[in-house]
């Protein structure tokens, strides 16, 4: 795909002290755009205008909209070639692991922020501020409550229906990410790959979750993964405060 003009990335704003979108799928796409030096501009995403009613979505230079983070990256990869010359076996293992992270670890993070009472105490003002971009003040309280109910249903759609089991699977998945990283600087090997973007976007949000949880403890206990989170952020040109993700150097 030839890009004569910047693409427009619609996403949710940053939160919790991170320089990236509060939405892991949005952060995944923006990380890819930065790593591949793809020209882009940002706008706050109104899900009512999205093709799949979710963020992220992009407006391509010719005007059409496209949603779903993996499909956006797949459309760019033939030109941007982030995975070029990386080990195919390693990439295949990373892609399978990324699918599990985006399902299990993502749902655990949603559970931490929207279901757990302490988590909602932190998340509520973030959600309310986001909704304020689109709705009048009189509707903010009921709309915020509605979003919470929707996210609770979403968090409980899979393994987090049984939180004990869900957290255990999510923690095992995080351990598998550490095993794949091994002694390499990135999951792709010597440099970042598309799987780094996908997994990093989810794990950095897990690490930055303000309230304690089994997944946050597991991740923060892994020095290799915490260093990788910071390394990925730096590679994409973001200044991630180590304290924000619990990495006290």
UniProtKB/TrEMBL annotation:
A Pfam family annotated for this UniProt entry: GST_N_4
Domain of life (superkingdom): Bacteria
Cited InterPro entries: Mito_Protein_Transport_Metaxin, Thioredoxin-like_fold, Thioredoxin-like_sf
Highest classification ranks of the organism: Bacteria, Deltaproteobacteria, Bradymonadales, Lujinxingiaceae, Lujinxingia
Domain Thioredoxin-like fold positions: 24-115
One GO CC term, this protein: cytoplasm
SUPFAM superfamilies found in the cross-reference section: Thioredoxin-like
Name of the protein: Thioredoxin-like fold domain-containing protein
